[in-house]
Structures are given as C-alpha cells and as structure tokens.
Amino acid sequence: MKLVIDANIIFAALIKEGLTAELIINDELQLFAPEFLLEEISKYQDQIFEKTHRSKEEFEIFVQILNEYITFIPQKNIKPFLEKANLFSPDPKDSVYLALALALKSAVWSNDKKLKEEQVQVKVLSTEDLINKTKILKKNKKKIKRN
Fold first, then answer.
1. Euclidean distance between CA atoms 44 and 139, whole angstroms
2. Which pLDDT belongs to residue 143?
3. SS3 content of the chain, % helix, strand, coil (to 5)
4. Per-residue confidence of the chain (147 residues) as pLDDT tens digits?
5. Could you list the residue range(s) of the whole structural domain that residue 11 is in?
6. E strands within 26-129?
7. Residue of 115, 127, 117, 126 whose CA lies nearest to 85
8. N or C: which end of the chain has fewer CB within 10 A?
9. pTM (2 decimals)?
10. What is the chain's alpha carbon radius of gyration, rounded to the nearest angstrom?
11. Distance of alpha carbon 70 from alpha carbon 13, whole angstroms
12. Strands of the chain, DSSP E
C-alpha cells in the first residue's frame, strides 16, 4: 500500500516505541514523505530527546531506519500539485502532504481528524486504520489502546 506519511506520525514513532514504529517498517507499506521532513527531524532533535529516553545513538539509528523505509521526495516534484491541494486543504500546513498524495495517487497516513474529515479529495488513514488493514499487526490490534 502506497502512503504519504505526515510529520506527526514520524515524530510519534521517534518519541515512543510501539505500533507506529512497527508500521513504518512493515513491508506491506510503501512510504513517502516530503524531503523537508528530514530537516524537521534534525531541527526538533533536542525536543525529541526531552520527550523520550532514546540515546543520541538510538536516535541516529532510528533516523537511518526512516531513510531506509521512507522515500523522501524533493519539493520540486510536489510543487506542481500544491495549488490544487491548497484549494481543499483544511490547514495550509497539510497542503504539501496532500499535494504529494495527489502526485503519487496515494492516501495519506495521518492521525489528524481535521485532515480526514474536512476534505474528501485524498483518502486519509489513521494508525488504527492501518493496523486493521495490515496482516502483521492484526494480532496486536488490542495494543492500539495503549499507544
């Protein structure tokens, strides 16, 4: 399944070990994100350290894993779809994710209810939706309540 992963999902996986991180490395998912997310991860590194017990080494390993499992797309490839995405995006910050989803003809993985409910042009799947759809994590379905 091809998905655009939003920043909140990545930050959730960085901060807390759990099902979100497991989904990122699930072979059933083909993940894409705007290239600027790599800069955002680096920019907020200190805040991530404050919210988690990961060491700097663990953080760097996790970022390497993200690079292996997520294809980061340059802004120039997304830009042609931004104008259309801006027309229906409930929040300007979400436009780039919606534009990338339009470019890839894919859904967006986000737990943002506003994004899911206030636009209909791009399908939005929550972490819970993905757990229900992926074979590997179906057995862990009850754990979603803890994450």
1. 33
2. 45
3. 60, 10, 25
4. 999 999 999 988 888 878 888 899 988 899 999 999 988 888 888 888 778 777 788 888 888 999 999 999 999 999 999 999 999 999 999 999 999 999 999 999 999 999 999 999 999 999 999 988 876 555 444 444 444
5. 2-145
6. 30-34, 70-73, 107-109, 124-125
7. 115
8. N
9. 0.86
10. 15
11. 13
12. 2-5, 30-34, 70-73, 107-109, 124-125
Which residues touch 42 (CB under 8 Å, ≥6 apart)?
none
Strand partners, 124: 108
Which residues are paired to 32 by β-bridges? 4, 71
Q: Specify the pLDDT at position 146.
A: 44
Residue corresponding to tokens 């436009």: 95
Whole-Å CA distances, 56 to 21, 25, 42, 50, 89: 17, 20, 12, 11, 36
CATH number at residue 34: 3.40.50.1010
Residue with tokens 């390497």: 64
Which pair of structure tokens corresponds to residue 137?
């994590």
**Tokens representing residue 85 in the block:** 């995405």
CB 69 within 8 A of CB 25: yes
Residue with tokens 């042609």: 80
Q: What is the pLDDT of residue 137?
A: 52
Total structural domains within the chain: 1
